[in-house]
Amino acid sequence: MTNSPEATTPDSSPASTTTETGRTFERIAEPRSENRLVLESGVWHQISPKYVTVQLISTGSFLLLVIAATLVLTLLMHQLWAWIPGGILTVILAWTLVILPRQARAIGYQLRDDDLVFRRGILWQRFVAVPYGRMQLIDITHGPLDRGFGIAQLKFVTAAAATGVVIPGLEQSTAETLRDHLVEVAESRRTGL
User: What is the reported pTM?
Assistant: First the structure.
């Protein structure tokens, strides 16, 4: 399986790991098991490492808020029961921060002749193939942190709700180029051109 270090256009090929707008991870992370899900052909495009930074900031901020609330409740208000939910949330959020970079390296998409394939996950792998002709809506969204770091997420909506796919952490220009390309291909597939 190959991957694309940079996905500035939908039809880009592997080149270098940097461009004018940014870079992507060097290779896609995969499970080591012989029984993993594999798509052998095609070029895998990956998300920007800026996605990890944004997620670390947002999750880290929430972790600090949980710690502060737990300390206020237990030390100032003498509510010792707050150690239990505070401790559980702290462990979960700390674990999330630890595994986040590896999770981000496992996210990728592949443009094939008839569909877009999205993959994510190491322990729980998910592969979703979205046929171009079934795409009804392609939406770009980004929050304040995303805008600050120049990334966005691309959401595909089809008639079947289960096939809704969100590709997070795309460079803004890549998301716009991919959206325009997919709208064009989806329209041509629906009209039978």
Answer: 0.78
